[in-house]
Fold this protein.
Amino acid sequence: MRALISVHDKTGLVDFARGLVDHGYEIVSSGGTAAALAEAGIPVTTVSDVTGAPEILGGRVKTLHPRVHGGILARGAEDDEELRANGIDRFDLVVCNLYPFRETLDVGGTDDELVEMIDIGGPAMIRAAAKNHQRVVVVVSPDQYEEVLEAMSVGGPDYDHRRALAAEAFFTTAVYDAAVVGWLGDDRVVPLRHVGSLRYGENPHQEATLYREEHARPWWSEAVFLQGKEMSFNNYIDTEAAWTLCHSLGEGSVVVVKHTNPCGAARGGSTLDSFEMAWEGDSLAAFGGVVGVAGELDPATAGAMVGRFIEVVVARSVSPGVGEALARKPGLRLLTAPPPAPARVWRGIEGGFLAQDPDRLAEEDWRVVTRRSPSDEELEALRFSWVVAAHAKSNAIVVATGTHTVGIGAGDQSRVGAAERAVVKAGDRAKGAVAASDAFFPFRDGLDVLAEAGVTAVVQPGGSRNDAEVIEAADEHGLAMVLTGRRHFRH
């Protein structure tokens, strides 16, 4: 049996090659791979000895030869005579990983450096072996070494295993080519790795699947699931909404999300205080919601959660004793995850995707446009409500006191409707509170609703043709109003 090995990433290479030799394989290799194996005392035949041709063009051409690819692509007995006539021996295993093109791109490599990182021989060998997977085993990552050696202990990878290895091989070359395309052209090719099927989609009759953009490391890919049922389509979406918002609000913040919209958000003196205030922001809507904790979940807060119906709790860490506190709710999904990182936003439409940069909050353009300026306390509440409004579906109005929300109107078709919903939810708590609007007030009616409910200060982007009318209304009510110059629609 013969193995052809040509790898750039030499992680685990020597141990794997020793394992192959122990299983009776002759090793054929080239360039730096052959040198590394020889230095480790592993018997190795060079590709040049096989082909009878030297490596040329600085190593650009070494494996592109009939005695290499003929040995990889040979079929069954029907090819034996031709192989003998041309002095070609079969390869049973191909081990290859590629030049680090993406890694060079990520660190800002020059054009000349990137061109040299475009692998030619490697993809050709991988694709040839994957095409002939019925007879050849193809290995493209050190992560596969252990499983392949284990399979060889029981006779070698079976057909299903070979087929799976071939699929990973073709995916590897596809991802590699996508990176090159992205560098050469304006259009980006996005490789998506299939992670797994979900319990169901938005509704039980819809099938759903989870994919991850290759090379991306989103928070959920590194999450640790501590208890509860499998995550559904809706669980993932709501959990991400809760996770991004609580971290946008700062350490110790807790948010409750339902249908991707915040029901309540708070940053109190303790995690327990934050949770209780967030839940009371709209306790009716919070039923069956998802909770995000920007910090550690402690037993006291976990104990307070036991009496509520919650689908998912996500925190950066959990204290000892939390598991025991939540054990009475075995269906509750509990997970820890790293903080979310800004990433491109993808939305599916029929036959395609929309992509955009993540929304970012900035305060540098804030300016007071009313006769009265907000107090320090109002300004703190305006900052808090502004962040929440940016994470609520448009049209959105957020009413807050200090650093906790008391009423949120989100996803309304009109801004005045969003204001009316927010103050109804707030009730008497709107008196002395502040409000944030994710986009401008087209008319004064929405502002009038807030003022009549007792709101004393408002933050909004401005930019309406009726800004003067809205500012005049604010002055009539004695409100302080801040314009940000930037809207935060979220559809």
Remarks:
- The mean pLDDT is 92.
